[in-house]
């Protein structure tokens, strides 16, 4: 089969790869579409734990089940499905267990014509979504759901700030918050991305690259009950300043590194909660997929590339040019 194969640090190419074999309790999915995540870029650049070569990248995928292993309901064969990339979460709903892993490393991923996964990872493809939208949903939607609802416990009528709008998870967080009846605001260094967020239901946004943006946000919106962040870095202290008393700051990444010294007095005096979040549990997955169907949420697809142009898709993500998800069309 054809697949996007990483043969070394920054050595990515579409190449021939061995087709996966079905395992007991598993299925093989013939993929129609897949999607990129920043995780794929970090692996490509050699900036991720446990990297192995060669590897087939990709955590998001949608397609048709073509094989089913022993002990798997044969009714899955021929079904259109999306794949939950969060594997072996464990029994503790509060945090993933020691065996937790994500599709696309160490297990071979979805940027290929076929992928083998446990049958428990499957969900029916939502009928209202296109193949491209379906592939855009899994990792970003699951990560946003856990951060916004399972961890920060956003409620209707609360005010939420979502940083770095344009990335897939941030866009899902915005869509979920608006659907839940929250007052949503965003940040970005791009006025165009802020304008697009407003079209999705954000009340407004702020350019975090400008001096004094946090004061502008406090004046325009007031304090925030919930803040969702994936950057960290020196700007994290501004988020603490913007949090309302009793506010919750949930974060699922640190693309700008650690924030350095935290303003401890502000945090304890205002009784703020700092909430780490990673991917999501099987319960998070089920709740997210149900919510998307109930509220008719359409994942935002930024660009669609054929598999043969995978390197161009990675280049777009590396320069942060997307708004929403970058999708790969594997087959028609």
From TrEMBL:
Task: Quote the Pfam families the UniProt record gives.
Answer: ADH_N, ADH_zinc_N
Residues in domain Enoyl reductase (ER)? 8-328
* GO MF annotations, alphabetized: oxidoreductase activity
Indicate what this protein is called per its UniProt record: Alcohol dehydrogenase
Please name the source species.
Termitidicoccus mucosus
